[in-house]
Each structure stands twice: as C-alpha cells, then as structure tokens.
Design a protein that fits this description.
With 210 residues, the protein is an alpha/beta fold. It has one domain: TIM Barrel, CATH 3.20.20. The protein is built from six helices and six strands; from the N terminus they run E-E-H-E-H-E-H-E-H-E-H-H. Helix 1 links the parallel strand 2 and strand 3. It starts with a strand and ends with a helix. The N terminus and C terminus are likely disordered.
Length: 210
C-alpha cells in the first residue's frame, strides 16, 4: 500500500499537477468520473463512452460507505456487501484491462472487504479515500480513541490493506463530520495544533509500538 502524493496522478506518475497549457494556466491532467459497476458487463460500454469523450479520463470513483446506523449517511445503503457483490465485481473486472483506476470512499467497517477485493484483483490500481474513514459519530461516538473498538478495527483493517501493493491511500478527510471531531461546528477552521491533538489517538505512540 502506498500514500498518494499530491504531485502524482492515481497511476503514480510524477508531475501530473504541474501540467500547464501554452498560456501557463494549470489544467486538469486527469479526470476521475463515476460509473455504476453494479451494471456488471454492461458497465463496459459506459466506460468506453467516458474514454472516447475525454482522453484524460483516468478512472472512476464509486463510494461504498455503509454502517448499521440510520443516522449516518451511507452511499451504498441498499447493499452493505457491495464490494463482494457478484455484479459489482463483474463491472470492477473491466477497469484494469482498460488501464483505469478504481477510487472509493468507505468507512473503516468496509476495510476487510476492500482488502479482499484488492487481493482478488492484484492487477487493478485502487485508491482508498480519506484513510478509510474511522467513524466517530452517532452509535460509534463512544468508541473513539486509541483503545476504542473503532480504532482497533481501523488499525487491523488498514494493516491488512497495507499488504496489498496495488492500493494507494489518500491522506486527509479526517476533518469531515463522520470522524466525529466536530470541526464543522466551529466558527473557524481548526489550527494545526488542534488537528494534531484530535488525530493523535489514531497515530501509534512509542508505547503502543513496543
């Protein structure tokens, strides 16, 4: 598993964000769109239309967030096992032959399923967004912190995902409401010190590593 650096595209090529036109204006070097992979084999025609319409089309983003909690927004509320769904996987299998990446936003609860997907399709480049968001709101609020079940499940899941060389992780996103830090309720954006103090429990200290 790799960190996805700011100056690389989703395929790991350097300098993607430094691309400029003849007038010196920075332009988009790659487009990540959306295709419903649960279409199965029929998703291929949709992918081909995207590729024909945009030479800089690089891949798709398919959000897979799910939690057994009606108060939490869920992108795949109708299918909690989306990453294991046969129709989804049939559509997913069409990406690598076309040289396209797969990007997903999910919660820590879906980490085991994403690791299975990555291992079953080792040739597919996968981008895991927002560090696989560890939930810290609603029914998960009491389990935040290093010793809570959320952190434990997240560490186990992210460790398993780290064994997959075809996966990159986008750093960031922990300031979103889902993580439970409530920065969205503040009058001003959090300072670096506030961010460090809030995210600290997710980062191992020396005693936890010994």
């Amino acid at each position: 598993m790799q960190e996805l650096a700011d100056d690389h595209d989703a395929r790991g090529r350097p300098g993607a964000l430094n691309h400029r036109d003849e007038g010196g204006t920075a332009v988009c070097a790659g487009i990540v769109s959306n295709v419903d992979l649960t279409l199965g084999a029929a998703a291929g025609a949709v992918l081909d239309k995207h590729m024909a319409a945009a030479p800089n089309f690089r891949g798709i983003r398919h959000s897979c967030t799910w939690a057994d909690d009606p108060d939490i927004y869920q992108a795949s509320a109708d299918n909690p096992n989306l990453l294991d769904d046969p129709d989804f996987r049939e559509g997913f299998a069409l990406l690598a032959p076309r040289g396209l990446t797969f990007e997903t936003w999910l919660f820590h609860l879906q980490l085991p399923a994403l690791a299975r997907l990555a291992k079953d399709f080792p040739e597919q480049s996968i981008v895991c967004d927002h560090v696989a968001m560890p939930l810290g709101i609603s029914s998960f609020a009491s389990e935040r912190g290093w010793d809570g079940s959320v952190a434990t499940e997240w560490r186990e899941g992210i460790t398993a995902l780290a064994e997959c060389p075809n996966v990159c992780v986008k750093l960031g996103g922990l300031t979103q409401p889902h993580a439970g830090f409530e920065f969205n309720r503040q009058a001003k954006p959090p300072s670096s010190e506030e961010l460090a103090a809030a995210v600290g429990p997710c980062v191992p200290s020396p005693q936890h590593l010994s």
